[in-house]
Specification:
With 110 residues, the protein is α/β, with parallel strands linked by helices. It has four helices and four strands. The structure holds iron/sulfur cluster.
């Protein structure tokens, strides 16, 4: 698996993404069902509200080899602040629409 992780820009000050990297390394959370090696090919933020830049960033990640786009848990689960992204649904919808059907989307990381 070659994964690009997209995180919430607003959450960056609260979290350096430690648990995302741990989940990939230990194949836990959203990565627990794979036996493949996992390579992180990108770790970017959404570009800030309302997340439109995430669309381009996901596309660029796929151009660079990502076969999976993972939304970090800060986006849909709202971790670690308990404040989920109000634009998450739309962001996912538009990203998915712009990518080949073969690209896997993960709704969270851990
Ligand atoms: S669009 Fe959502 S994920 Fe991006 S900064 Fe705003 S709240 Fe965070």
């Amino acid at each position: 698996m070659k994964v690009a992780i997209i995180r919430c820009m607003q959450t960056e000050d609260y979290c350096p993404g430690t648990i995302d990297f741990k989940a990939v390394r230990e194949k836990s959370g959203a990565f627990s069902n794979t036996n493949e090696d996992i390579e992180i090919i990108g770790f970017v933020n959404c570009g800030g509200c309302p997340g439109k830049k995430a669309v381009l960033r996901a596309k660029e990640s796929v151009k660079r080899g990502a076969d999976t786009i993972a939304f970090a848990s800060c986006i849909q689960k709202g971790t670690p602040m308990g404040y989920p992204c109000p634009f998450a649904k739309k962001m996912k919808e538009v990203i998915q629409k712009g990518l080949p059907k073969t690209i896997k989307i993960l709704d969270y990381t851990h």
